[in-house]
Amino acid sequence: MLYEDPANLVKARQHLTWFLAQYWGGPMLFNENRGHPKLRMRHMPFRIGNLERDRWLVHMLSAVNELVTDDSLRATMTEYFVKAAEHLRNDTGLPISSADYPR
């Protein structure tokens, strides 16, 4: 279980709002309140495989498709969320920062 009380997602919603606003050029509220995002490190305690990635994406892309009316912005956000979700997978056996290693 990710949250002590799944019915109370107030903090999670706030953190996600701060992060997304900051990522897309808004105020640095996430950094000011939580420090550097360090997304992979923050998600490492939780197993994130294909199933978890896909379930998260269903919800995020559903919200994007429901709320974003501009096709170009929707495509940009979709691309970001797909890449981010894949980046957070930690069941691959790859090093945490695989980008640091030559291919």
Total number of β-strand segments? Answer: 0
CATH-defined architecture of the largest domain: Orthogonal Bundle
Count, helices = 5
Mean pLDDT: 86
CATH class division of the largest domain = Mainly Alpha
- Which residues sit in consecutive blocks of at least 5 with pLDDT less than 50? 98-103
In N-to-C order, the SSE pattern is: HHHHH
The secondary-structure class comes to: mainly alpha
Helix percentage: 55-70%
Distance between the termini: 36 Å
Overall shape: it is globular
Strand content: under 5%
Radius of gyration: 15 Å
Largest sheet: none
Number of separate domains: 2
CATH-defined superfamily of the largest domain: Globins
CATH fold node name of the largest domain = Globin-like
Please characterize this protein's 3D structure.
The chain starts with 9 loop residues before the first helix and ends in a 15-residue tail after the last helix. 59% of the residues lie in helices and 0% in strands. It is globular and about 35 Å long. The protein folds into two domains: 10-41; 44-97, Globins (Globin-like), CATH 1.10.490.10. The protein is built from five helices and no strands. It is mainly α.
What order do the helices and strands come in, and which of them pair?
Layout: H1 10-23, H2 29-34, H3 39-43, H4 50-67, H5 71-88
